[in-house]
Write a structure and sequence with these properties.
Helix content: 40-55%
Radius of gyration: 16 Å
Structural class: alpha/beta
Distance between the termini: 40 Å
Shape: globular
Strand order of the largest sheet: 3-2-1-4-5-7-6
Largest sheet: 7 strands, mixed
Strand content: 15-25%
């Protein structure tokens, strides 16, 4: 019951944040959510691959994946029904979408699949309270030969002090918190699940990109 209440509370919070924001989300976030297109370019998909975006938001990334990697099968979920309204418009009939919690969704029940060749977490862990649980659950969705691609805010250490502080204050207005422990969490989850882990640091430490791969 407590978990259900927490999920419902977070869903309501996200809906309240994005009810109005969803209309300008993509137009504004392109100026500071860097690294998303780098992630998409590195997916290395083939036709028929199942690509799942956890916390898919407006569907912007899925639309970009569809264009960059023709023939993939798209799936997405988000805890916010408000954001899913945009996602449905962005990908129309080209994706299977569902409302679910990143930490506990049942992919078979929600999306009709029990494994994916590519799973994406794009600037979502910084908004999920149990972000390590969401990261581990995403890794659990990988099919044979699958890869989990994660991009989010980095340590920001290359930014001037005042700019870094101002960015943190701005992000807090949208309930966003940078995850400085993400590299360690990726290493730990990779070790526990027998996955390979590689990482990339964006310019000035603005973003971090991680890939967890099923060997073989």
């Amino acid at each position: 019951m407590a978990a259900d209440a927490a999920q419902g509370g977070h869903a309501a919070l996200m809906d309240s944040v994005y009810k109005g924001q969803r209309h300008i989300y993509d137009a504004t976030r392109k100026y500071y959510l860097f690294g998303r297109d780098t992630l998409i370019e590195g997916l290395d998909c083939r036709p028929g691959m199942r690509v799942l975006e956890v916390a898919c938001g407006t569907g912007r990334n899925m639309a970009k994946v569809r264009k960059a990697w023709p023939g993939v099968r798209l799936f997405g979920l988000d805890i916010s029904e408000e954001m899913l309204k945009n996602a449905r418009k962005a990908v129309c009939e080209d994706a299977i979408l569902g409302a679910g919690d990143a930490c506990s969704f049942d992919s078979q029940e929600l999306l009709g699949e029990d494994g994916f060749e590519r799973v994406i977490l794009s600037y979502s862990l910084s908004m999920i309270p149990d972000w390590e649980g969401a990261l581990d659950h995403a890794a659990a969705q990988l099919a044979r030969g699958g890869e989990l691609h994660v991009v989010d805010f980095g340590d920001l250490s290359g930014l001037p002090g005042p700019m870094e502080s101002a960015l943190h204050r701005w992000l807090a207005k949208f309930h966003v918190e940078t995850r400085s422990a993400l590299p360690q969490a990726c290493e730990r989850i990779a070790a526990q699940r027998g996955l390979q882990h590689s990482a990339q640091r964006g310019k000035l430490g603005y973003f971090q990109l991680h890939i967890l791969r099923v060997p073989g």
